[in-house]
Structure formats: C-alpha cells, structure tokens
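INTERNAL AUDIT FORM
Audit reference: QA-55
Scope: verify that the stored structure record matches its stored sequence.
Auditor: D.O.
Record contents follow.
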Amino acid sequence: MNAARIAAALMGMLLAASSATADPYDVADRLDIIPTPRAITLDGERLDLAGWVIVPAADCPMSAIGAEEINDRINSLGGQTLTVAPEPGGSGAIFVGAVTDPLTEQVATSLGTVLSETDPGEQGYVIAFGEREGLPVILCGGSDPQGALYACVTLRQMIQSEDERTVALSGMVRDWPDFKYRCNWLMNVRGIPPATNSPDRLAAAVADAKAEIDFCVRHKINHAIGRFRDLSAREEARDVQIEVLRYAAERGIGVRYGGCPHAWREARLHLVGAGRPCRACARRG
C-alpha cells in the first residue's frame, strides 16, 4: 500500500471514530468541506461502494453533473466508476435529485428525511443514509437542482479510501447557504484568445478554466468575475469562451465581466444564460 493510500486509510479510521455529537466545524475540517454545513454528523459506519449505482433524477442536468462529481472522487481514490442508471437495480444506490423529482421525494420519505422546496430552502440540501426495500441507499436530495448538486460535492468529501476499498462515511448532513450569492473568485480565462493559434495551448487553457469552475462548485461559490479580451474579434476564441461560460452556467455559476471589449454587443446574444455583462457593456448593448 503506498503512502497516499495509508494516509487515506488512517483518515477514514479517524473520521469513523467521530461521534454523532461532534461539532460540525470539527467534522468539516477533517473532511475538508468548505463552507461548513449547518449540520453534519458521522455515525461510525462505512459503506463499501463497490457495485453500487448512482441514480440521478430524470431530466435534471445538475443531478447528472452531481453523479459525475461522485464518480470523479471515486476515480481519484483509485476506485471503480459507479454505473449511472435510471433505476437502482439490486444493489446499493446513491439517489441524486431535487425534491420535485417523484423518486427523490419517495426516497426521502422512506428514510424519514424532511425535504421540501422550502426546507431547507433555496440551494439547500440533505444527505441521508439508510435502507430502501432492504438495500442500502444514500440520498443526495436538494430543495432545488442546485441543492442536489451541492449535496453531491459534499458527499464526495465523505467518500474515502480504506484498505484498498472506496467507502462512504455514513452520517447525516443538512445545509443551506447564508447568502444567496457568493463571489470571491476571479476567473483566469484571459489566456484563451492568444492560445487559439496552438491547439495544445488552447486545450490546456480551456482545461484550466474548467478546473477553476470545478473548484468554485466544490466550494459552493456561485458567482465569479471574468476578464475577457477579444471576446468577439476572433470567432474561434469567442466559441471557446462561450463553451467555458456554458460550463459554468450548467453548474449554477454566474459570471460577470470586467474590462469587457466593445465587441460585447456582437457576442452577447451567444452568451444568454451563460453570464452577464458589466454595467458599462450592458448600457452599450
């Protein structure tokens, strides 16, 4: 077992020893969850996720993205990607969805979990562990689709590596934001236009930009400041910037622009739903 696996195993054992009355800040600190959930407890059980499936709510893109976040964590720990399916089948299942999804509501009810559009509320979520029809389940349920995604990024930190297994630390989480809009990030996407002359540099620039967006999602930052150059002067650059902005919008991150070029007037129609211009550019448009 290499050093990283040994460290992960020790961390899992330490977290498993946490009592149900542990302070939320203490648990969140050891799990590296930022910001700290309103309530988070661990009950000491660990569920081996081998053979489980992820069941995202139908017709909910954020739930599908949440499933990707869970699998990304499992892969990073050396585990096997979980099957994503519309039905749980005969194995353990992680259900992901907003309470407006009938299956999500059914699972919440079967687990005795309070979840509605107003409780915990906008962008709020719950994570619950239990059994449904004799099989182990984990619920990542949101009051809305954004909350369902946030449940998944919190659960990803509750997934650990232990004895060469990928396990979920059983417990309960209930959370909602203090502020509707949370912004402390400056997106570094200015390097995209110059990189369009080099496919390798362009791919790297896009990957870096998307990695920043992933960081924001995992820390529940939903607004960012973006500075752009030659937004519409070069079609290939504009297309790639729009791709990045769409990627952010799909994850609930709004981008405001500072230092926008006058070319915003031409490009803004392509960016509807993916971000908002600075006030000066909005006035020009």
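Auditor finding: record pair retrieved intact. The CA atoms of residues 182 and 221 lie 5 Å apart.
Action required: none
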